[in-house]
Amino acid sequence: MAALQTGSGSRPAAGARFFCTAGRGLEPFLMREVRTRLAATQVEYISGKVFFTTCSDLNMLKKLKSAERLFLLIKKQFPLNVSSVSKGKIFNEMQRLVNDDPESWLSAISIWKNLLELDAKKDKLSQRDANPLKRKVGENDITNPKKLKTEQMQELQESRECQLEKQMEEETVEHGGFLTSGEKPPEASQNDVVKAAGTPDRKDLTFRVSCRCSGTLAKTFTAQEVGRVIGIALMKQYGWKADLRNPNLEIFIHLNDIYSVVGIPVFRVPLASRAYIKTAGLRSTIAWAMASLAEIKAGAFVLDPMCGLGTILLEAAKEWPDVYYVGADVSDSQLLGACDNLKAAGLQDRIELLKVSVIELPLPSESVDIIISDIPFGKKFKLGKDIKNILQEMERVLHVGGTIVLLLSEDHHKRLQDCEQSGIPLNSKGSHTDEPGIEKCLNPGEKTDLSDTVSSSSEAISQGGLDKMPPFGSLVPMECYQVSLGRTDAFIYKYRKSHSLGL
Amino acid sequence: MKLLTHNLLSSHVRGVGPRGFPLRLQATEVRINPVEFNPDFVARMIPKVEWAALLEAADTVPKGPIEGYEHDEKFLRQMHHVLLEVDVLEGTLQCPESGRLFPISRGIPNMLLSDEETET
């Protein structure tokens, strides 16, 4: 790819190819998001990763909300042939990943450098502009401590997020680095972006390999062995030096039964860890995904009646600002935490808090446009509330045509399915299959070779879930998604209120 | 608690129903928070406002939406100030029917009812 012309000031001419990791169940959201936010093309979902092409720069890429991590793609190809007995042969295949087609490596690295340089230029430009204008003295002093705090938060988040990310892998995964004992040093010496150390000559590049092996391959090879083979091949091929502490370039490799993928992580800190959230409650990616289903429009009144630390409201308010948000909880400690979070994010003026019970909302009937909530799971939630009582009260305060998006545990999911048998009156419009919501659950329509089998199974999950979602009074089920929370699974339910309760 | 929020709250004491609105506001500590003026947002909130309740709660308020309010910056700024910049930090909200008092503390109204008071 040609070097950027100075003065063009915007983006790479052709699109670059990226991939993101995503939590299980969030892939349809991520595919939708890259299309909407980044005008991405050639979007495919294969086994835990979403691949796409886009011209967007780092600023836009940084805004992705439903992804775990973002990588620039170097190579994606068919899985290594592990059937051959000789380990040596397989090592050769791995070396070929590096040696065959060096152009794909070099062009990816060139794109990566361009992205960083463009970002660095933008930073310099905005700083230069600040000087000729008369600004208050010490403005830079004010912004720096904030930056530091952000970095510190990101460091903490990163090590925590790595744990969560690992839990989310379905297959047994080994994670190892080239020549290390397998830890990931949680540095963030620079805000967000992997350091490019100016514009070094290719020979001066330092690198580190991060390797994941799963499936059949993992039974024979450790991630460390593979990392070592790849690392040595890279050193031989390109003359780079290995640096485990603070490399310019990180190479990420994932080998499994479905593909071999090589990429460059674009940001040091996972996208899923948000700089603006001080204490996360619900996983931010899921919170954002729920908000994205709720059809939030400017001027809406959005309520989270079990807001906890306020994660859902924070994600929603960041994305859809011209909206009136109210959070409620019964717990003082949660409300305090939410208050803290709001202040830390600078959103305390846009989100109001109430100490209120979800089964007795002090709101007139049909006064709320949208309800989004993570219904607490399990035994630690001791208020003796029944999911049906909760839904009934939510239904009461909702406007006709309003939407409810909930995160429910398996237990809640089962209890709601039982509704049908217990004789709660069904909506006369009854048949879910007529609902336009079903279209949304299905694959957004991109057809590719490998992804067909996998995406049809995610369709099956969504659609199967929807079939089991009975209506609840006047609440008509629209969409249902099964998502992973790490150790357990949960269900995102979307309802729309179809008619008034006539109270 | 902003006055826009007060405008939405209704008492849920048993038997009270729609007579539980609006709650009588007694503020003991109020803070004025500068909030960025967004005329579009304020214009969208105007149709949702219950004016009688707002007039009870606040002093200097326009008597009602004026014609063409969407483009009347002066009106919108006034409403913006009243609805979004006045923050009640301490005080009480009183149910007009039952007299039940709900405290506001650190800007957060506590509207939890005890079991006897609830509607169900």
Can you describe this structure?
The complex is a heterodimer of chains A (503) and B (120). In chain A, 37% of the residues lie in helices and 21% in strands. Chain A is α/β, with parallel strands linked by helices and 503 residues long. Chain A has a domain of 166 residues: 3-Layer(aba) Sandwich (Rossmann fold), CATH 3.40.50.150. In chain A, helix 3 packs across helix 7 and helix 8 packs across helix 9. The N terminus of chain A is likely disordered. Chain B is α+β, with helices and mostly antiparallel strands. Chain B contains 4 helices and 4 strands. A 4-stranded antiparallel β-sheet of chain B has the order 1-2-3-4. The interface between A and B is medium-sized, with 24 and 33 residues.
The most extensive interface between chains reads: A-B, 24 and 33 residues
Question: Which word captures the global form of chain A?
Answer: elongated
In helices, the fraction of residues of chain B equals 25-40%
Coarse structural class of chain A? alpha/beta
The total count of strands of chain A amounts to 16
Oligomer classification = heterodimer
CATH class of one domain in chain A: Alpha Beta
What's the total count of β strands of chain B?
A: 4
Radius of gyration of chain A from CA coordinates: 25 Å
> Measured on Cα atoms, how large is the radius of gyration of chain B?
15 Å
N-to-C span of chain B = 27 Å
CATH architecture of one domain in chain A: 3-Layer(aba) Sandwich
Low-pLDDT parts of chain B are: none
Order of helices and strands of chain A: EHEEHEHHHEEHHEEEHEHEHEEHEHHHEE
Instruction: Look at the structure and give the mean pLDDT of chain B.
Output: 91
